[in-house]
Specification:
The protein contains nine helices and 40 strands. By secondary structure, it is mainly beta.
């Protein structure tokens, strides 16, 4: 009741209080306040129930703030994310609004706004991870409903490495994956890797299929900062939908996508130092000559090839030019090299447009030395720049357009010779044979022995080579929600175009080479004799340009619906890919694949699971009538841990799943052969003579090549 002695301001305050407390009538001076009821009450009610500003802090169960928590209004697209301190600010339309808090690895929570304007929350980690969404072939599923052998890796694990190649970080992090790094040379340091061993003919495309955002691409082109999720499909039940490409397992990578909320910027930089795990250690000149004497003695020679006086000259370093002791490996290599990695990620968006932009840089140096007196640089150094932009646009409430553009530019400088030749020269050249160079009157002379090389000359004086690589990757997708037909039904079209190019230039020379000096003249100068004349300038040769391009088209229909305890999922799609290599003006016959694929999955009460997958696809690599194959798989699963009688044991057994599967996958590649159904003719460049007296000569000879197998499939 509003008393007579209260002023008008107090009356209005009481009106607000009455509204907040649920009072639906007011009285002043014994009279009903009709005006207040008709005018003031609706106004105050509108002010108190619309445009409410909510704020708060989200923490984990340990009280640590959580950054990047998604907060949306249930049933709407309005939302935001928490900042680095776990704080958030959001305007809600009414007090009946429900806030939904979601964060990867944590249980989803809902809170009704009510009379609250400050809502703090402690989120709890998911103990079983059954509701976590996992990327699978041509889609995603809840972890609980997966019966195929699929392993997921956190992107942070893949970023814990000092090399350019992402494949080097797979070994030891993924069960069932074997990875072998055969070289540490910058730009060529990627690993060969296999899922559950080699599953096809040796050399016939034994590497797993790698799909980035659903498109066949290369794993080592990615920067770890671009990755949102990483899944490995190991068995046939998981990879059967890929048919002729699934025999060696499949790796699925999803790049980062935009999230609701204000723009967030993350910057990362790291500096690393790398060195060879182990380099061979060599004996010095004195030990080498002593060993040669012992070998000669063992072979029955009466006189040693090297006298003790000569060996003493090497021991005492009497004249390093005439009695050198060179550790060639130490001379041409550095103790360590450096590399740098930096990236910046910008993420944000609204209910209409969401974006994620990732830019990164990677720089690496090699361990080979260079001659700093030269105006050019023969040292190995690599610079790589990656950029990826993913944009999702809600054209309407049920139509979403996705535009993704990414790629990289890589520039590399190295020696004019290969690293294998550089190491071979250092391995094979004895330490006593000659020094790296002679320096007389500010002139440099390079010695060499016939049939051998001077390792220092090979590494620092032969010139340099530069290579440039670039790739552009694009993806356009349009998804339409067909809930007006039936809830859970969606159709999606995808088009992708990728283009890669490589080019290189070699600038090379050979300096004047001299025979090793054996004595000095009366003035103390070395007596040098020319062995071969070289050139004083760098010649230029262009390497053949090389590249490829690929286009991909896909149309899929996806259905997902829950009816009480019954969960049903379905997928059907058509796709085709055209891949073509090119070298200068020479076009190679394109590689083409096309087919259909499908999946049907049923889950009852999160306990019993059944799934059927199939791929019916083919390749132009086979004869007509044998180009297509049917690749089915079936799988069943049972989650014992979800039974009610297992609830008391949840702390001990968080998840117990039994599963069984059977499937068929294929491979359309053979080692070094295309169109193996055709018999070929070979060509020998040696030529042959013919005629009654051999008076005729044919430059090239022909012979039977590979035998064709018409029914190969």
């Amino acid at each position: 009741m509003i008393k007579n002695e209260l002023n008008q301001k107090l009356q209005l305050t009481c009106i607000v209080c009455a509204l907040l407390s649920g009072t639906n009538y007011l009285h002043a001076n014994g009279k009903w306040l009709d005006r207040h009821e008709k005018e003031i009450i609706p106004t105050v009610k509108k002010l108190t129930e619309e445009g409410i500003h909510i704020n708060g802090t989200v923490r984990d169960s340990q009280g640590e703030p959580l950054s990047g928590v998604n907060i949306v209004i249930k049933g709407q697209t309005i939302g935001t994310t928490t900042d680095i301190d776990g704080n958030y600010f959001l305007e809600v339309p009414s007090r009946s609004s429900i806030l939904v808090f979601t964060y990867i690895g944590f249980e989803e929570q809902e809170i009704v706004v009510g009379n609250q304007i400050n809502i703090n929350l402690n989120m709890h980690e998911i103990s079983t991870g059954l509701n976590e969404v996992v990327v699978v072939g041509y889609g995603s599923q809840k972890r609980a409903s997966i019966v195929g052998s699929i392993t997921t890796i956190e992107p942070q694990v893949l970023s814990q490495g000092t090399t350019r190649a992402l494949s080097n970080n797979l070994a030891g992090n993924v069960a069932g994956v074997i990875a072998v790094q055969r070289s540490g040379e910058p730009g060529a340091d990627g690993s060969n890797f296999w899922i559950r061993g080699i599953s096809s003919f040796q050399g016939a495309g034994t590497s797993p299929l790698v799909l980035v955002d659903g498109i066949e691409r290369t794993l080592d082109d990615l920067n770890p900062a671009e990755i949102e999720s990483f899944s490995v499909l190991k068995d046939a039940s998981a990879s059967a939908v890929y048919g002729v490409r699934g025999a060696n397992g499949v790796i699925l990578v999803q790049t980062k996508r935009g999230k609701l909320g204000k723009p967030t910027v993350n910057v990362h930089f790291e500096q690393s130092f790398t060195q060879p795990t182990k380099l061979p250690q060599y004996i010095g000149s004195a030990e080498y000559l002593t060993l040669l004497n012992e070998i000669a003695k063992d072979n029955g020679q009466q006189q040693s090839p090297y006298s003790q006086e000569t060996i003493d000259h090497y021991i005492n370093r009497t004249d390093p030019d005439l009695y050198p002791d060179v550790n060639w490996m130490d001379l041409i290599t550095k103790d360590f090299a450096m590399n740098q990695r930096a990236d910046i990620t910008v993420n944000g968006g609204s209910d209409i447009l969401r974006y994620a932009v990732v830019g990164s840089y990677y720089g690496e140096q090699g361990i080979f030395e260079r001659d700093k007196s030269q105006s050019w640089n023969s040292g190995t150094h690599l610079n790589k720049f990656n950029l990826r932009s993913n944009v999702d646009i809600n054209i309407t409430k049920t139509t979403q357009l996705t535009v993704s553009v990414g790629g990289y530019l890589q520039e590399m400088n190295k020696m004019a010779i290969s690293s294998d030749d550089a190491f071979s020269g250092a391995f094979e050249t004895p330490p006593f044979i000659h020094p790296a160079y002679y320096k007389e009157d500010d002139n440099i002379y390079f010695p060499v022995v016939n049939q051998r090389v001077n390792p220092y000359v090979q590494v620092t004086q032969k010139g340099y080579a530069t290579t440039s690589q670039s790739k552009i990757e694009s993806l356009f997708a349009l998804e339409q929600d067909l809930k007006f037909i039936t809830p859970g039904l969606k159709i999606k079209g995808i088009f992708s175009f990728d283009r890669y190019s490589w080019s290189g230039v070699t600038r090379s020379k050979t300096p004047d080479l001299y025979q090793p000096a054996t004595q000095r003249d009366e003035n103390g100068n070395l007596i040098l004799n020319i062995s071969s004349y070289g050139q004083q300038f760098l010649s230029t040769s262009e390497n053949n340009d090389w590249g490829n391009k690929a286009t991909y088209v896909e149309l899929n229909l996806n259905y997902e619906r829950t009816f009480g305890k019954h969960q049903v999922e379905g997928l059907f799609l058509y796709n085709q890919r055209d891949y073509q290599q090119f070298e200068e003006s020479y076009d190679i016959v394109p590689y083409r694949r096309m087919g259909i694929a499908g999946r049907a999955s049923y889950t009852y009460d999160n306990r019993y699971i059944a799934e059927f997958n199939f791929g019916y696809n083919g390749s132009e690599n086979f004869a007509k009538g044998y180009r297509f194959g049917f690749f089915p798989s079936v799988a069943i699963g049972y989650l014992l841990s979800e039974e009610k009688f297992m609830e008391p044991y949840k702390d001990t057994f968080s998840k117990i799943k039994f599963r069984g599967s059977f499937g068929l996958t294929g491979n359309d590649q053979l080692d070094g052969r295309r169109f193996a159904y055709q018999t070929t003719l070979g060509e020998d460049g040696t030529g042959y003579d013919w005629g009654t007296n051999g008076q005729y000569y044919h430059r090239n000879s022909r012979f039977e090549g590979d035998f064709g197998i018409p029914n190969l499939t």
